[in-house]
Amino acid sequence: MKTKILIILIVVVGLGTGGFFVYKNIIAPEAKKEIETSGIEEKIEVYPGAVEVDVSPNLAKEIRGDLSPDVEIKVYSSKESVEKIKNWYRSHLSDKGWEKIWDGIKEEGEFGFMLWKKGKTGFSVGLNLAPNVKGGTSILLVKDEFEAWGEILETLKKEEAKKLIKEALLKIEKIKSEKDLQKLQLLISEAVEYGKKATEFDPKNPEILFQMGNIYFEIREITSGAEEWAMHYYKKALELDPGNPLYQEKLREIQS
């Protein structure tokens, strides 16, 4: 009888106070599956309160590594500390299961419960998929309290920045046709908030800085100080991409 193995790979990195991302308010579903191997039967869950995060196809491919393309990649984020998440997973596995799963990773072709930490850069917990076995994968990204889990976290922040600036520009478009003063003020506030967060997530991206300038440019006649902020962001964009004719044109327009 073939062994059925579900992968639940959890890479823990701790978001710290405040968190990094603006997510849809969707709580990650529990991913309970029974693991059948060597007489061990365990139920593994997604950490409670973790929030699902959208990732780009390229990032999903990078995370997947050598796993089969049939394996589904899901990414979750939690604000809890690395230690708290580790302890929660430890308490949800029996002593026998924990020990057996931990030992299993050393055996080629077997699944394993991975538990490792590289200095202050990250923490990983998970079930590893045996070769040629289809299953589902959950990856939990949490930022370590001391240091971000470098490359993947930065990629996620840049992906999120693109979404935020796009959402901000959509709100600016709605401003043009909004007649209700209260709704208009809310749209302006949200557009600026999303745009600023995007520039925090990817501060060296000239296009995001330029679009932030455009947000202020569009509200300059109805928002005090917007013209100065538009000029500020156009200049920032030009510092990073000095030869861009569109950036130069916009800066000249607002300075004239």
Overview of the molecule:
The chain has two domains: 9-148, no CATH class; 158-255, Tetratricopeptide repeat domain (Serine Threonine Protein Phosphatase 5, Tetratricopeptide repeat, Alpha Horseshoe), CATH 1.25.40. It has eight helices and eight strands. It has helices at 57-64, 82-91, 95-104, 150-175, 181-201, 206-218, 226-240, 245-255; strands spanning 9-12, 34-37, 40-43, 51-53, 72-77, 113-117, 123-127, 136-141. The strands form three sheets. Strands 1-7-6 form a three-stranded antiparallel beta sheet. Strand 2 and strand 3 form a beta hairpin. It is elongated. Residues 1-43 and 100-150 have low confidence and may be disordered.
Strand order of the largest sheet: 1-7-6
The average pLDDT value, as a whole number, equals 64
Strand proportion: 5-15%
Number of helical stretches of at least 4 residues: 8
The figure for the number of domains is 2
Task: List segments where confidence is low: pLDDT < 50 over at least 5 consecutive residues.
Answer: 1-43, 100-150
Query: What's the gyration radius in Å?
Result: 23 Å
**Major beta sheet summary:** 3 strands, antiparallel
Element pattern in H and E: EEEEHEHHEEEHHHHH
Give helix % range: 40-55%
Overall outline: elongated
Distance between the termini: 77 Å
Label the structural class.
alpha+beta
